[in-house]
Amino acid sequence: MLTFVALASVLLLGIVPEQTEAIAIYTGWERHALLGSDIRLSCSFFSWRLTSDDVTFSWTYRPDGSRDSISIFHYTSGQAYVDNKGPFRDRVEFVGNPGKRDGSILIKNLDYNDNGTFTCDAKNPPDIVGRPSSVRLLVFETVPIQAGVITGAIIGVVLGLLVLIVVIYYLMRFLVARRVFSLSVSKHGKKKREGSQARQLWTPPPLTCYPLP
């Protein structure tokens, strides 16, 4: 029995670390921003382990139409390192909080050339196995109305029309019922008056007396 318990303990101790060495990384899906503005690109992660002092965050950027990615930011050992030579020189700022598993960055003074895909990777040793997460950035002169807003507006208009139709329908039914009731009362009153006048105009025939034989 003790041998079985010891074997089970060894198996559990051998399996659990393998299951908890994974890390899940999260970013947004797509971000829209105005030309010349600043934007925060969020990155966080989930790990079964406590936040390690050796936590790291890395950001890469792939321009639209390109297959190659470039490194623009790296955080390790409590220090943030930004790209000082590439397209984001002096425009990237670390605004995250590693202690809260936040590896967000701020990109300043956006340009049309910044359109592309930003990928965040995080490590929380010993949890180091995970799939990086990506967010696409689109820079516009004016931010377009998103499809969800348009869909919501259409649904609202349709629902409003349906409510209006229902209200008009029941209002018409009420008016028709009221009209029918008024006509019925009027007709009944007219018949009653005609009957009363007929009784007043009717006079009994004179009585004729005949002598007895």
UniProtKB/TrEMBL annotation:
SMART domains, A to Z: IG (SM00409), IGv (SM00406)
Any Gene Ontology biological process: myelination
Signal peptide coordinates: 1-22
Membrane topology per record: Single-pass type I membrane protein
SUPFAM superfamilies, sorted: Immunoglobulin
Parts of the chain that traverse the membrane: 145-171
Domain Ig-like: 17-136
UniProtKB keywords: Disulfide bond, Glycoprotein, Immunoglobulin domain, Membrane, Signal, Transmembrane, Transmembrane helix
GO cellular component entries: plasma membrane
Localization terms from the record: Membrane
Protein family according to the UniProt entry: Belongs to the myelin P0 protein family.
Name by which UniProt lists this protein: Myelin protein P0 isoform X3
Organism from which the protein derives: Notothenia coriiceps (black rockcod)
Gene behind this protein: mpz
